[in-house]
Amino acid sequence: MGSRDKIGIGKLEGNIDDLAAQIPLSGFIDLPISVAHTAMLQHLPAMHYDLFDRILIAQAVCEPLRFITADRLLAPYSNLIDLVFIATCLRRNPLCKA
Fold first, then answer.
1. pLDDT tens column, 64-96
2. Torsion over CA of 23, 3, 59 and 78, rounded to 10 degrees?
3. C-alpha–C-alpha distance, residues 83 and 66, integer Å
4. Cβ of 65: how many Cβ atoms within 10 Å?
5. Which of 32, 41, 87, 89 could cysteine-pair with 96, CB 3.0–4.6 Å?
6. What is the structure's pLDDT at 78?
7. What angle do CA 77, 79, 80 make, to 5 degrees?
8. pLDDT single digits (tens) 8-39
């Protein structure tokens, strides 16, 4: 699922045009999907069925690049995948000081 889709369903906040403008300023570059990336899809085990996630993993494996995610389901694909844990503070939690 791309950034526009995640913004549309409320999983990501922000303006997609602002995000697109800031990415090159942050030092990131585009990584187009290549034939090698799509060919790698057939070699990935069928552990996860989100095609967008799978193409990102294929890119990481082919290039090779580190892939940083909070999705634990993706970790078994490659040692190039780094899990990050995002602490969430719920206002209902009396221990939360946010």
1. 999 999 888 899 999 999 998 766 555 555 555
2. 110
3. 10
4. 12
5. 89
6. 92
7. 95
8. 666 667 788 888 888 889 888 889 999 999 99
Helix-strand-coil split of the chain, %, nearest 5: 45, 5, 50
Give the C-alpha separation, 30 to 14, whole Å.
20
State the pLDDT at residue 98: 47
**Amino acid letter for position 4:** R
Whether 62 contacts 37, CB under 8 Å? yes
Task: Dig out the tokens for 23 from the structure.
Answer: 């990415």
Rounded Cα gap, residues 81 and 70, in angstroms = 10
What's the burial of 55, exposed, middle or buried (CB within 10 Å: 0-12/13-18/19+)?
Answer: middle
Residues 6+ apart with CB under 8 A from 92: none
